[in-house]
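Re: Re: token formats

Sure, here are both.
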Amino acid sequence: MLVRHYRNGKKIHLSPVELCHLNSFSCIGCCINLYEKDSVLNEFMRINTERFKSFFPDLKTVNPTFLKEYLRELKKVNPRDFIFLMYNCYFAGFLEKDKVGCLIHPLRLNGVEMRDLVPVNCVPRGKCYRDVLWDKLPPQVREGFILKLRGSSCLEYSREVYNFIPYLYNCHFLKPELTENHYYNIVIKDHGIPVCSKLKVNLELLSEFYSPEKKEKSQEEMLYKYGEPYLEERLKELSKEYNLILRTIKLPEYLVKDGDEYVNGEHIYLLFAPSAERTEKTIIMGTNYNNAKEKLSCNDRKIARTISFLLDSVKNLYNKGKVNYLWVFLGAEKDIILPLRGSYYLMNMLKAGLKIDSITIRPSDILVYIYFQEVLQSKSHYSVDYHIPSPVTYLSDMEEYYKVNFYTHISKPLIELTGPKSISKYFIDSIEDEDFPGLLNIISGTLKKRLTEESPLTLEKLDNICKNLFRDIFGLTPEEEDRYIKELKDCLIEKIYTPACNTDYFRIEEDLLAKGILMKITDRICRFIVTTQSDYTEEFFRILIKYGFLRDSKQYAVSMSFYHMAAGGVPCICVCGSEAKEKTVDKENFHKALFDYLKYMEKERDHKIDRDFIKIID
């Protein structure tokens, strides 16, 4: 279907999706979070529909400017929290008595597309991958599916489309034994919109991986192609070959799922080599294994190379040391929705006492945790010395702004970075040029600069800014100037002044304290960073330099998987390959440097290690 873009009139192709409106059914899975209760979703869509009809009694009046005004009004009568609105769209509603869908779909607006011009979480031209699978099913299976759903509500139908269509596809096109395979479940759990091609590719990869005709390539190539299934298979082989202990820990669903999004990597893999002499002293080496957009395949050369390096290290270290060795593979690290869940969970297990075989490992037993990220890219490697706190849960846009503000200007006192001035600055930065009416968006750059200079804002300051701004603009009559000044002032009051006045910065500090971004010492709220620098951690880089590797300068880190270990008092090293340097790699020398360092740590294991890595800034 061809539709016209509102702004430039360009014709756009929308993929036909049969399942959106099938017979008497309608699906709304792309617009709302189907994991919510029916009562919550029905009430949400009912209010959306009623307000839309009252605001737009004639659909000919729908345009992006009025839609933004509509959204502002709707948020007052249908307020929802930030997390809810990530997965539930204000334009989801009842098109007819029993049918649901998008209230501003081009088919309702005479073929005009404007959904990408309003601030909603929407992928207008995404192709539903369930529909791709539906098209491949035999006619008799499709007829049986429709018959089974007779009398269902729109929400029941939507859930069946999301859950059952991939199952039907599996039954008819893949090996039946894959139905209960947990990797198959990982693949079909992704409910994102623009992933139809990835789903098909990953289902085919699964079928190929479990095929007896599977062609074996190098370890790195197999990791790159098949990702987690191959990692687990290889760990089982190493465990059996060297008589090591393999534990596979499935993360609880609340740690890997939010709304209809799932984190890549639902398992923590632990491969344990006990010491030749009984001890709780342990060296941990780890990395993450799946940060790709796909739910199965790694598809990242650097990650595959790093995992392969760690797997190779197992062959050289098993059961030979005077301490225990533990290899950990923690799942996703930089996932936008739910980052670092594997490392959070592992650290909590260590605090409670991680039992492997007859040995219990606690944070105080760990000599060092070496975290590898994209190693063997070049001869240049760096350690990350300072770690910015990672949130234990979501940060709102304003909280994220505060966090960046705190740690970007780390030399400034905290008191200078909080309060009304910072809040005003947040709303000034978040306003878009097109938010200013008419002529005013031309001068938005100058305006923002003056607003920032005058923050925190008052009504008197706004009045003066607006009047002074128009003194620099010629050719306006007094009446036009007064009108523009009033329009601009009204706009600034609505978009900056009023929300800034209604925001309590003490509450923001309390929320950031609860989420682990700030720390309280006695009665004082402070910023802090975690530093892993010590003689023990620096020794590794002295050894690397001896083998011809270079050391980059100190760096800050955000959202790195070793953060929770360091914050819990475990000496940590982060080893990264730097792509900016020469590309030649000496893998053998890197292994030698690693083994020299591990032997050094074994010898020093009884020395006292300083485990206080928290550094208070304020």
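Second one below.
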Amino acid sequence: MRFSYNRRCFQQFIPLPTLGLSGIYFLFLLTMNRKWIYKAEPDEETVDRINSSLGFGVLESKILVLRGIDNYEKARRFFKPRLDDIHDPFLMADMDKAVNRIATAIENGEKILVYGDYDVDGTTSVALMYLYLSKICDKKYLDIYVPDRNKEGYGVSVEGIDYARQNGFSLIIALDCGIKALDKVVYAKSLGIDFVICDHHLPGEQIPEAVAVLDPKRADCSYPYKHLSGCGVGYKLCQALNTVYKLPVEELHDLTDLLAISIAADIVPITGENRVLTKIGLRKLRKTKKVGLRLLIPDGRLENFNISNIVFDVAPKINAAGRISHGRTSVELMISEDEKHANEIVNNIRNLNDERRELDSNMTTEALTQVIQTRQESTHTTIVYHPGWNKGVIGIVASRLIESYYKPTLVFTDGNNGELVASARSVADFDVHSALDRCSHLFLKFGGHPAAAGLSMEKQHFETFKIIFEETVRSRIREHQKTPSIEIDAVVEMDDLNQSFFTFHRQLAPFGPNNMKPVLVMKNVRLKAEPRQIGRGGKHLKMYLCADNSRRTIEAVAFKMADFADDFRRGSFDVAFTIEENHWKGNVSYYLNIRDVIFHAIGEKSELQAGAVQY
């Protein structure tokens, strides 16, 4: 039998009733227990075939086969993707119509409005499209539009269409939004304004009556790769336009730095075409010519910049403008050619990100308190509401609540005109979009992905919605979706972690959904020396591990596990970890990022799991 060691630990040293509100979040963050799920052993013959054909070791070959890389050609596409691996953009439904309409607008001197969502995917989409169009037509015929999150909400807005009418635009290119803007497209058409839609969200039963609707998730779209970001769909349109305007291909590739940021931030699979575009985009990002991006990324970081840096450093800053102020600010940063102006924007964005962090912390504390007060600990869903919460931060708070309670979650606040708006987040493998669709008759607006969605509704439907959504999730959610888990790729020995393996591990990048870092387990390891507390407030532990069957030691970091220092000292333990790189003065070293621990020396017979995770 396995108990939650961390819950016992906190209750022993910090009685629950004495915790102030500021301590609630930290407590819940560390009381999530995760199942260790070992992936099935891959077929030995397939592993041997990969081993002999590619020259990797057995461990490396197993990791590849577990990722579906089971022959030479798949390995070639994975490790050495070529531009030939990118699909013909004209395989996407309506692409020819989109190209023809835009070409006609350019030829006739029509004004084109590049319209996009206010998040990272949307703003990078707008920047990418604007930069490409500005190379093939006069900038006086171009403008950008990003809706105000608080006043207009998500997607195509009446205000945006009215702006186009008032300023003489006859064509709107909508990016990362529009797939459900049925009435807005009709309204625009009545004003003589055409739409070309570039979206990647799930369509509804009807497709907008736009001139062209580019979305690989359309049921009638045969485009081979379905997981493009919104910016990715925009890039495919630029590719198609370039068959007409024939800019040097390098100028098209220069836009992939924005595309890599969108792919990383929007958490789309880094497989297939996305992997090719991300690898190209990261190379371009490290040498980006865009003044704003160079200023946004800290000094000395560009050379080794990777997906993780985008997700945890760049994306939150770009998002902060749309969450707290206005998303147009981020677009202006990405298209700016003036270093002084770009620097002013960067300073503003950093201030906005600091404000976002404070709002995030305060709202999360209030939301966790509300969960307890409304007795939702035992429900199948988490649904909270406060009229004063910031609309730009409710999605982050929903994710924080899942870290604590691990249930499909919605965070509501007041929107415009008296309605409610909400952000939804889901747990692994549970389709929250489909569950919400069961309640869609109550919504004014609704859209998203299986993992995340947004909606608005009239206040009078709130209580009815809570009942229907709770029942829907209760009837659909499966047992394995109720508990967070960690999937283990392989059990390894200390000596398996050699330079050859580290080189192989680096070649697996870029990492992301459907190509995550391998999670490995070492059993019966122990401390070589006293662990050292590091980081702000000493929350993390740095240590060196050793094992009886090896003379080696290896550096490891246990994030947010300083409270378990005594348990690491007591004896042997099993660790689940990923490999991380540390760059210093041109040198690269490797260490273990401890994701979870099972201590052996606690209790007489029970193994007790620490359950602390780096978020």
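The chain has three domains: 3-45+485-609, 84-351, 374-481. The two ends are 27 Å apart (CA to CA).
- S.
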